[in-house]
Amino acid sequence: MGQYHDMQHNLTQKHILLGVTGGIAAYKSVELVRRLRESGAEVRVVMTAAAQEFITPLTLQAVSGQRVYTTLLDSENEFAMGHIELARWAEFILIAPATADFLAKLAYGHANDLLSTICLATTAQIIVAPAMNQQMWNARSTQENYQRLQSWGVRFFGPGHGLQACGEQGLGRMLEPLELVSCLQTLFQRGTLEGHSVLITAGPTREALDPIRFISNRSSGRMGYAVAEAAQLLGAQVTLISGPVCLTVPLNVDTISVSTAQEMRDAVISHIHQTAIFIACAAVADYRPVHPVDHKLKKQTEFLEIILERTPDILSEVAQLSNPPFTVGFAAETHDLAHYARDKLLRKNLDLIAANQVGLPGTGFESAENALKVIWKTGEIDLPRCAKPLLAKQLLNLIVEHYFQSSKFNRLQPS
């Protein structure tokens, strides 16, 4: 199955301490423990007092097959320094759900319960899966805690975007158990792309009509940003060329902001010769006005005629280089998805193409979820609908597998 499949891709015998804090998403912890064990992990669970208001220790004990720890001053454990013992046992500490209150505890070094004390006493990687109301996540204090913890090396899985228990919609949802397991598996693949450069385009482009109007599309950039983060987690040197979006730049990813298709093309070409893998996620405008004006167009006539011309075909230009990188395209279609995507793959001589159907409720542009049909010259596979961060990891796994099996890997691998 190639070099990629020789690398560890599960959690067999990994020691994972799951911390459960007091949010409504605590009910997902039961499924999370089950999925972690299915992946081969050894799981110990620590619950805060607030978490026990949502779910009982007995439930998590049943699914984990181990005693659940709840109290710092436990007469059965304290003589043996139970919190130190757990802190040393854990290879990873996953806190899911992680409330705003617990993020504040971590950020300021509090140690007034078992879970926060373990976090202070451990050398294990701490991972948090935030779960809270979107307003609480966006609050200045939470964002400052988020930045502070990231700077210390605490890793964040999520939060996700969507409908929340309070009825509001936005960032703040805890990722689903399968998404969290996938994120953990990605951590154990770190180094898969060590020494390999990945260039990614994301978001829309804008083609000016006049100083205040432009032609664009509904791309949010979420998929491209998620792919960039997934590539960085695998150890790649990632450069992200982004059109105008309202997204947080992934950590340790070099980002270049552009506006027009021409600017995106120029940025790509200036970086492409140092690139091993090129992933064109951006929704680049196909046409631009031939004669944009330097003043605001006035509403003076019943009809307005605008002459458009083709924009640069960035994907084709890259694929047709004399020494091209491993090249992955995207295709957004409203109908005949597989037909048009395969035609684009062959016509542009791509190594892989990821196609999604737009216009369906809850997927594609401006959505937190999507589904993809990934096509290569000799086959294809469907990646079912899920949150874009998880979908990006699944897509990148396929890209890496095909890249390692390709002649371009042998030609482009670092010396």
Enumerate how many helices there are, as a single number.
15
Strands, total number = 20
Highest CATH level, the class of the largest domain: Alpha Beta
User: Could you tell me the radius of gyration in angstroms?
Assistant: 24 Å
Kindly state the percentage of residues in helix: 25-40%
Strand order of the largest sheet: 13-12-9-14-17-18-19-20
Number of domains: 2
**Second-tier CATH architecture of the largest domain:** 3-Layer(aba) Sandwich
Strand percentage lies at 15-25%
The residue ranges in which pLDDT falls below 50 over 5 or more consecutive positions are 1-9
Please report the distance between the alpha carbons of the first and last residues: 23 Å
Overall geometric form: globular
Largest sheet: 8 strands, mixed
Mean pLDDT: 87
Looking at CATH, the homologous superfamily of the largest domain is CoaB-like
Task: Fill in the CATH topology of the largest domain.
Answer: Rossmann fold
Helix/strand-derived category reads: alpha/beta
